Amino acid sequence: MGQKFQYDESGSTFFYFLLSFLALILIPATIYYWPREKKRDPDEESKKCHCPNCVKKREYQKHADPWKATKNFLIKLVIVIGWILLLLLAYKVSQFDYEMANFDPYEILGIPLGASQGEIKKAYRRLSLILHPDKDTGNEKEFMKLSKAYQALTDDEARRNWEKYGNPDGPGAMSFGIALPSWIVEKENSVWVLGLYALVFMVALPIVVGTWWYRSIKFTDQVLLDTTQMYYFFFHKTPSMALKRVIMILAASLEFNKKHNSEIVERLSDNEEVPQLIKKLPNLSEKNKEPPLCYTYSIKARAIIHAHLSRIPLNPNTLELDRRYLISKCPYLIQEQVNCVNQLIVLAYNRRIQRLPTIDTIENCMKLCPMIVQALWEFKSPLLQLPYVTEDNLKYFSNKKKPIKSLQQYAQLKKEERRNILKNLSDNEFEDVTKVLANMPYIDFQVKYEVMDDENPTEVTTGAIVTVIVTLTRRNMSSLFGNETVVDNNLSTENGIDGETPKEGGGDAENQVPAIKRPAWLKQKRGGGRKNKKPTKQQPKAIVGTKPKVEESPVPSTEKKKAKEENNKEEESEESEVSDAETNDKSSEEDSAQKSNNEDEDQEWEKFKKLHEREKSLQGKSKTSHPVHCPFFPQDKQEYWWTYICDRKSKTLLTVPHYVTSLVDQEMVHLKFTAPNWLGVYTFTVCLRSDSYLGFDQQKDIKLDVKAAPAEITEHPQWEDLEEEEGSAKEDAHESEYTTDEDLSEGDD
């Protein structure tokens, strides 16, 4: 059989191409772009806070995008039109298949199989008078089918081919069709076709790809590359950076510069309003001459951030609009600052840069995020995060014998005491305070450490990889209502972070691990419930199988027989006791073997759980946790947390800050670092920081007793001298980057 290439004359394969192409675009577009409304909770309105600031925020969010309804309508319209076209194409393709699959010349002529030539001609004449296009009842399409059927049956060769191959033309050649109609290659349409190709592939496609590429190379995630480079410069220049300096760097972000961001609005009124605002803000450092901190956009953004943190009202038509835009971009800019400081610390550890940023710098960046979200300075009372609570109300919290300084302390009071403190509020206002306080987080922060993939996971040796397992269990603050026995874990410490110090020996700290169902291959096989009998004490007896000597006495024969029978019974009982003792010994051996098997299974199960926890920690995390009450933040916010390990004595960071974004009920985080290379007892701090609330940070200390690693067996004694020389040189050249407890005590002395 030959081969031939041909365009689609009838257009059927072209419609197949259009159908598949449209389906490939339409199905994912419908899934991802179809506008969906959030499911409304029937109790949602009762859960909302109705303080003036929250009501104002919701009104702003409703009118923030006036074209949202129009955009959603157009998206729905385009998708619906696409599905209509898809259905029409599917119907047309099905008709093509029906016509091609139902060509039967005998059926078209209405004659039986094996009819003679006369019957074929007679049927053709009769039907042609009805279907001829010149007749009133004519049908050109049906007449073409009739003519083709007549030709297939009047030609002997064509008739044989049809009966044998199902095709009047015989066995067809293998053809490769191009799913394009033939009019595309016709000479008359060549100009239009070439013009369309040039428009799509030489104009539209390069513009789309170039625009996407130009925009993508300017950003890392959501932050401009130039902004990231500026962060690197300033954090490397100032290793230990104060909080106000961090605010200055944040305000200098190029996202706030109109040259780099077209969404920024510059008004003529800024020349009057910004200087007036600067006069109200102390310690703004607006006279700083360091670029870009001295640029106009940077000073304006810094003034707006300071006004936001001081909760100073701004002009709703000008600076208030700028405040909402600037503040909404701050959380992910602060996250980029944290990432930059962390990268600099890594580079310093690798000896690529000389200046090592301190832990204070990265913690000041983290402190700034909840300050921005709650619109409060760090030195302000965390009680101001509650609705209706102002500076004037704080004096009522300090009138008690034990002053209330934290939200946790206030939640532990009885309802009457909480109401008595805020007795100046109405019942509805106090209800809002209670709802907000009840939904705030109360985190159970548990820490334990171990050395993974080691024979003794609780023993830390020099250079070992230590895995710290942080378990975060979230409950609502309502669980503390009226519970005065709960220890307040959130009192501020000298280190500037909240929390309590656990007992020594972090490796044995309690850690509530979520229950995991055992796999079938690790289920223990239990016995049928049969209890093992205690082995009875064996009485001293003669050798088994020999009869003891009996003294002769003048006893009748019947009594002698009885005595013999009793002696036989005693011998049988002794033999049974021996056999029972042997069976008891065997059962005890079986029990000990079963216990050892159970211990091995338990060890395998523990390893399986650890692997499961590690796999779970490596899985992708969602961005949904719990909503944050933040009336001064222009957008909705979810609770996120940072957790990391640091050395407070040397002010160094041991692990990358892990950003927890999916803490709904419980979350487990694995933090890994390398144990010090020098022997001693080290105290490290595991920290937990909130990016949404003030006063919810915690920290716990873990003590590592670092011991010497097992000595390696060397097969080449000639290398020992060389290794000793290298070891002494290293000890002279380097000192431990961590501080042991012994070093600290010597320094105190």
Automatic annotation (TrEMBL):
Keywords (A to Z) from UniProt: Chaperone, Endoplasmic reticulum, Membrane, Protein transport, Transmembrane, Transmembrane helix, Transport
Biased composition regions of type Basic and acidic residues, renumbered to the chain: 548-567, 583-593, 727-737
Entry protein name: J domain-containing protein
Domain J: 104-166
Localisation per UniProt entry: Endoplasmic reticulum membrane
SMART domains: DnaJ (SM00271), Sec63 (SM00973)
Pfam assignment, any one: DnaJ
Composition skew (Acidic residues), residue ranges: 568-582, 738-749
One GO BP annotation of this record: post-translational protein targeting to endoplasmic reticulum membrane
Record field: transmembrane: 14-34, 73-91, 191-214
PROSITE patterns linked to this entry: DNAJ_2 (PS50076)
The species this protein was found in: Zophobas morio
The UniProt record lists the keyword Magnesium: no
MF GO annotations: protein transmembrane transporter activity; RNA binding
Membrane association type: Multi-pass membrane protein
Comp. bias (Basic residues): 523-536
Residues covered by region (Disordered): 489-605, 713-749
InterPro entries: C2_domain_sf, DnaJ_domain, Ig_E-set, J_dom_sf, Sec63-dom
A single GO cellular-component term on record: Sec62/Sec63 complex
